[in-house]
TrEMBL record:
It comes from the Bacteria. The lineage of its organism: Bacteria, Bacillati, Bacillota, Bacilli, Bacillales. The keyword Signal applies. Keywords: Signal. This is DUF4352 domain-containing protein. It comes from Candidatus Kurthia intestinigallinarum. Residues 1-19 form the signal peptide.
Length: 153
C-alpha cells in the first residue's frame, strides 16, 4: 500500500510539473505577440505632417489613431484638378520599419469622387502589427510610388 501511495504522489507531482511548464510556454508566446503590439503607441495622437501634392490631389494627414489593433489615418484630401476625380484609399500603402506591408481594413477606407477644387475628410485603416516608424506611400499602380509620411509610433 505504501508503494502505491508513493507512486500516486510521484504521478501527481509529475503532472503538476508538466502543467506548469505548459502554462509557462503559453505565457511566453503571448508575451511575444504582445511585444509587437506594445511597440505601437495606443490612442489618438495629433501629429504635424506636411500636406503632400500627388496625382492631382493635395493630401493632408491630420492625425493617427491606434485602437483594437487597427492603425487609422485621418485624412483631408483636396482635388486640385479642374475635373472630378476619384480618390480611393487603396492607393495608400503602410509599411513597418522592417518593410512589411500592413493589411488595409476593408470596412473603413475612404473612397470618394471629389469635385474639382473641393476637399473631403475621411479615414483609412490598417492592421496595427509590427514595429514603427511606419512609412505611408502613395501608389496608383501607374506611376512610381511616392513616400508621403513617416509615422513615429
Amino acid at each position: 500500500m505504501r508503494k502505491l501511495t508513493q507512486t500516486m504522489m510521484l504521478l501527481l507531482v509529475a503532472s503538476l510539473f508538466l502543467a506548469a511548464c505548459n502554462k509557462a510556454e503559453k505565457v511566453e508566446e503571448t508575451n511575444d505577440a504582445n511585444e509587437a503590439k506594445a511597440q505601437i503607441k495606443v490612442g489618438e495622437i495629433d501629429e504635424k505632417y506636411d500636406a503632400v501634392k500627388v496625382d492631382g490631389f493635395k493630401i493632408q494627414l491630420l492625425s493617427t489613431e491606434v485602437k483594437d489593433d487597427t492603425l487609422t489615418l485621418h485624412l483631408k484630401v483636396k482635388n486640385t484638378t479642374d475635373k472630378k476625380k476619384l480618390f480611393d484609399a487603396f492607393v495608400l500603402n503602410v509599411q513597418t520599419s522592417e518593410a512589411k506591408n500592413l493589411t488595409s481594413a476593408v470596412e473603413n477606407n475612404m473612397g470618394e469622387t471629389i469635385k474639382a477644387g473641393k476637399e473631403v475628410e475621411g479615414t483609412v485603416s490598417f492592421t496595427a502589427a509590427g514595429k514603427g516608424p511606419f512609412t505611408v506611400e502613395y501608389d496608383d499602380l501607374e506611376n512610381d510610388k511616392k513616400e508621403l509620411w513617416k509615422i513615429e509610433r
